[in-house]
Design brief:
Elements lengths: L1 E3 L5 E3 L1 H5 L4 H6 L20 H15 L1
Antiparallel strand pairs: 1-2
């Protein structure tokens, strides 16, 4: 349903964005589209950008 870029930007699948199902969907998922994750100040504690990139490539491949 979501992918996160190596720059910590959240992307929600297009079909989920196109749905109209009320405030829970809007605020619980759709509202995060293109938002930036808050990451720890300590670089060691941050999500690995390389691993995020691998997963984001797969997300893009599966979502077109």
């Amino acid at each position: 349903m979501i992918g996160i870029t190596p720059d910590y930007i959240v992307h929600v699948r297009r079909d989920v964005l196109d749905q109209e199902d009320g405030p829970m969907l809007i605020h619980g998922l759709q509202g995060f589209h293109r938002s930036r994750l808050f990451v720890p100040a300590n670089p060691v504690a941050r999500p690995d950008r390389h691993l995020l990139d691998e997963r984001y490539v797969l997300f893009r491949r599966l979502t077109g």
